[in-house]
Design brief:
There is one protein chain. By secondary structure, the chain is α+β, with helices and mostly antiparallel strands. It has 2 domains: 241 residues, MetI-like fold, CATH 1.10.3720.10; 128 residues, no CATH class. Helices cover 58% and strands 10% of the residues. The protein is elongated, with a radius of gyration of 29 Å.
């Protein structure tokens, strides 16, 4: 064990903490789901915003027969990476049905409109169902108007077979549907991407600002340290959520504004920690020797001081990641986060918190549990990193 490098020794210590490893595995799986995005979602439409109002507030596991009617407007097929990042606009309009039959050139369906209402009988021309357009009037097509006999039986059979095999499907909503009839599982998976993106960008912004300002304040004495410390103390006294809301008011509503607002609200904690670490290290012998050799201040800070406080920085970054996810959820709940129809976990709770006292509490509980599990996973990793970078505890175990 004595031959291990510091990084390997830290990793060995981290691996002994099975709970921290479990948190890291959960974060990795969540990150994988966020990267794959639309590729693994049942609803691959942009923002998972495919609404079927008749299916609003359906319980998890509900299944329905759907008639998929081709849209009349043209829809382009997007590439693999575009579909993964932004989704594929739907080619079909989904109609929930309880039964169907063909009669001449139409398909008659019993359209589902609610559990307490009788299905409504509707007729759709089979050409409109398959092609999204009305039939053409020539010898190759079915003749013409409802109630008129079919001329081309082979074409008629080909169209009806296509409807039965490809456009009448059974769809299961594993986590139910929301108040607009949208698939909860799809929106929950897409909300993972928003939460992790906000956490990542916010941590990057806060780390860049905090490390820079904290290192300058800790390394230089006099008025520079006094001014920066005064600024940090002023911002430290403000509640984080109120500070984020104030910055959001100034920047406006939107996802990039949230990145900046949350990042600007968390740099003070990083700066205070870095300042204290730098003040403790700048008097040690090897730092004074570097100054005596003529190294400039920038090199001393970046090459000799900051690498020696990597451990505390990583621990704080993991902790801030969890805090950023909570802040984003709070902002979305208050209406300052990413705007609809973009799904966020906080926004999903806002839309459905009134159903907690009703028979559909899962609508708010599911995204709430997702927030809790992801934040808890980051907290487990934070504790694991803290123990792994604790040199005394490492030496005791070795």
């Amino acid at each position: 064990m004595t031959d291990l490098t510091p990084s390997k020794r830290t990793w060995q210590a981290f691996k002994r903490n099975k709970i921290a490893i479990a948190g890291l595995v959960f974060i990795t799986l969540t990150l994988l789901a966020a990267i794959l995005g639309y590729l693994i979602m049942p609803d691959q439409s942009p923002h998972a915003n495919n609404m079927t109002i008749q299916l609003s507030i359906k319980k998890p596991g509900s299944s329905f027969m759907m008639l998929r009617i081709r849209k009349s407007e043209p829809v382009d097929t997007v590439g693999f990476f575009t579909r993964m990042l932004f989704g594929q606009p739907g080619f079909y309009r989904d109609v929930p049905i309880t039964g169907y039959h063909f009669a001449q050139d139409s398909i008659y369906v019993s359209e589902y409109i609610g559990d307490e209402d009788k299905p409504e009988i509707k007729a759709y021309n089979i050409f409109e169902v398959v092609r999204g357009t009305k039939p053409l009037y020539n010898h190759d097509t079915i003749s013409l108007k409802p109630g008129v006999f079919i001329k081309n039986e082979a074409l008629y059979k080909r169209f009806t077979d296509k409807i039965i095999t490809e456009q009448i499907t059974n769809r299961t909503f594993w986590l139910g549907t929301d108040i607009y009839g949208r698939d909860m599982l799809s929106r929950l998976l897409l909300g993972t991407r928003i939460s992790l993106a906000v956490g990542l960008m916010s941590v990057i912004i806060s780390m860049l600002l905090g490390i820079t300002i904290g290192a300058i304040a800790g390394y230089f004495d006099g008025w520079i340290d006094n001014c920066l410390s005064w600024l940090m103390n002023i911002l430290w006294s403000l509640p984080a959520l109120l500070l984020v809301i104030a910055i959001s008011f100034a920047l406006g509503k939107g996802l990039w504004q949230i990145f900046i607002a949350v990042g600007l609200s968390m740099w003070v904690e990083v700066a205070r920690m870095v300042r204290g670490q730098v003040m403790g290290l700048k008097r040690v012998e090897y730092i004074e020797a570097a100054g005596a050799l003529g190294f400039n201040n920038t090199r001393i800070i970046t090459r000799h001081i900051l690498p020696n406080i990597t451990g505390p920085i990583l621990v704080l970054a993991s902790s801030n990641f969890a805090s950023a996810i909570l802040l984003e959820a709070g902002l979305s709940f208050l209406g300052f986060g990413a705007q609809p129809p973009m799904p966020t976990w906080g926004g999903m709770i806002k839309e459905h918190y009134g159903y907690i006292v009703m028979n559909s509490a899962y609508l708010a509980i599911i995204p709430g549990v997702a927030i809790m599990l992801l934040v808890y996973a980051f907290n487990l990793v934070t504790v694991g990193l803290r123990d792994a970078f604790d040199i005394k505890s490492q030496s005791a175990r070795i």
